[in-house]
Amino acid sequence: MGVCGNSNYLMALVLILLAALTVGQVHAGDPSKAPWIGKRLDGKKCHNPRPPPGGGPYNYLNRPAIDGVLNLVENAHFPESVENLQHGATGSVMADLDFLLLSFPNHHRGLNSSVRYSMKKKGWKNEKHGVPAE
Question: What separation, in Å, do the N-terminal and C-terminal C-alpha atoms of the chain show?
Fold first, then answer.
């Protein structure tokens, strides 16, 4: 793997680590909810540009409180084919990742897939779906 490949891999790991470290902060009073925290690579604050589906965003780390919703969303929008960026389950891969991360913004495997998708496609097409991968 060349220098460029190593830097992409390192960027993906850093982004996932940052997400994992910051998810401990949850909405006061409801540990099942996950806030949008941190900054994007362009320096702007992370935020959800549209309402999350199904009443989220949910905190992926609080599995007991969200297990039913998580299983429903993962079964419909995050099968192995989406995680491995082969093809979408309900539309495009990007649409399924977008739905998953709107519902669970700190979903570790979903974040990893979105970073890999972003590096593979050289960007996250904001005009079609949600927020950038980072």
Answer: 23
